[in-house]
């Protein structure tokens, strides 16, 4: 059974809306295509149709929905959800994995289209023939002319080429106003009303494309492929569709910053625009950007308040080099929300730092250099005889070196020789 990954990252600077999942399908529960659609009464995570005509059979392969155009005759395929979602969304984020496994085209040509709107044919026909005004937004998949390569477009603009399995993110705004969301690249994005963005992985392939029919709703979708003499194999997986009709988050963030002070501490500041049922904030710290430990908690100031509320704390003991911070908001029932970006501040090295530890036969050196580069490390006894010599590359920040030399008891000198400096440190074992 594959693991389902849920996406909860959309928001306006962690905005006042969370985005609830209204459709999810990863094709892992059955090897039969018929298990995933119901023409008249589909479940929340079912299609109305998964159809292939003439020369284009569909199947479940490795828990993916596959269409395979085997001959050069004209043929079409589609999957459709013409039953409306249980909510009436005005903002959609549609995510799925797509791969053009193989294709028979040697030039760039249109392959298929993905539509979102409020009415689609129940017989699997091309929706552009009789349902054009019901299509709010759509994009196209193109062969790129390279086997297994594809591009995406909107009829006028065409993206770069992509190969292999890619995650497609189709973001559509029909709210009546400009809003923001967190993109797949982790950066905040702005999208105008009745426009859409399309992402391939973390690449924003198409941006701010105008809706085809702005008056149409966005509560149904359809994929339609028609081939004219071209062979192809393509796969879909991990569908996740999220809307904007669920609960409000306690906090709307405006900013979160970290800056070094004149006292070599780090000032952490953040601002909120609105707070509802907010309990407190927690700040976490890391020296590598991955492993975080608790730094401090601070109570909420602006509970049930609209307007700018400012917060500030100080990290009195930052490490030399990079310091990373993340901000977590906790509401009154214990629910947590993270600020979308980890921030950092660097504390410069004023003097090189070397810490020496002995553990049995092992010698450990923790070195923080003034600058990055190659150094010659020499360990000598008190008479000046070198007992260990090695070239080491030191990066900015802390460098941990282990030396298994088995030194006897006595006094030793550690020398670090770079192109412009020679440093010496004495230690006893």
UniProtKB/TrEMBL annotation:
Protein name, per record: T9SS type A sorting domain-containing protein
Species name: Pseudopedobacter beijingensis
Domain of life: Bacteria
């Amino acid at each position: 059974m594959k693991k389902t990954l849920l996406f909860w990252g959309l928001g306006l600077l962690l905005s006042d809306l969370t985005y609830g999942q209204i459709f999810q399908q990863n094709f892992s529960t059955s090897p039969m295509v018929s298990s995933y659609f119901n023409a008249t009464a589909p479940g929340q995570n079912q299609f109305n149709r998964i159809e292939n005509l003439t020369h284009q059979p569909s199947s479940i392969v490795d828990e993916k929905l596959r269409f395979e155009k085997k001959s050069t005759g004209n043929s079409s395929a589609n999957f459709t959800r013409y039953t409306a979602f249980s909510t009436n969304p005005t903002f959609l984020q549609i995510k799925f994995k797509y791969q053009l496994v193989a294709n028979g085209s040697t030039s760039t040509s249109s392959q298929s289209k993905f539509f979102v709107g409020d009415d689609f044919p129940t017989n699997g026909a091309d929706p552009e023939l009789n349902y054009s005004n019901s299509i709010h937004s759509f994009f196209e998949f193109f062969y790129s002319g390279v086997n297994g390569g594809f591009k995406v477009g909107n009829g006028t603009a065409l993206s770069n080429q992509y190969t292999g399995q890619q995650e497609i993110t189709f973001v559509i705004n029909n709210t009546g106003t400009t809003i923001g969301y967190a993109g797949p690249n982790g950066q905040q994005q702005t999208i105008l009303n009745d426009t859409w963005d399309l992402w391939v992985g973390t690449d924003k392939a198409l941006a701010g494309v105008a809706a085809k029919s702005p008056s149409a709703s966005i509560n149904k979708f359809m994929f339609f492929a028609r081939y004219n003499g071209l062979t192809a194999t393509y796969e879909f997986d991990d569908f996740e569709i999220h809307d904007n009709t669920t609960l409000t988050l306690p906090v709307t963030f405006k900013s979160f910053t970290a800056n070094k002070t004149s006292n070599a501490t780090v000032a952490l500041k953040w601002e909120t625009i609105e707070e509802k049922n907010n309990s407190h904030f927690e700040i976490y710290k890391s020296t590598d950007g991955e492993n975080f430990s608790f730094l401090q908690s601070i109570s909420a100031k602006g509970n049930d308040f609209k307007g700018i509320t400012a917060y500030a704390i100080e990290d009195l003991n930052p490490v030399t080099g990079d310091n990373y911070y993340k901000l977590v908001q906790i509401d009154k029932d214990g629910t947590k929300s993270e600020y979308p970006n980890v921030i950092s501040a660097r504390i410069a090295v004023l003097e090189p730092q070397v810490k020496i530890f002995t553990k049995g036969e092992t010698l450990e050196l923790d070195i923080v250099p003034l600058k990055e580069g190659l150094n010659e490390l020499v360990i000598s006894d008190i008479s000046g005889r070198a007992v260990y010599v090695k070239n080491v590359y030191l990066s900015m920040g802390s460098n941990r070196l282990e030396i298994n030399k088995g030194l006897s008891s006595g006094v030793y000198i550690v020398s670090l020789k770079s192109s412009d400096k020679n440093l010496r440190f004495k230690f006893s074992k």
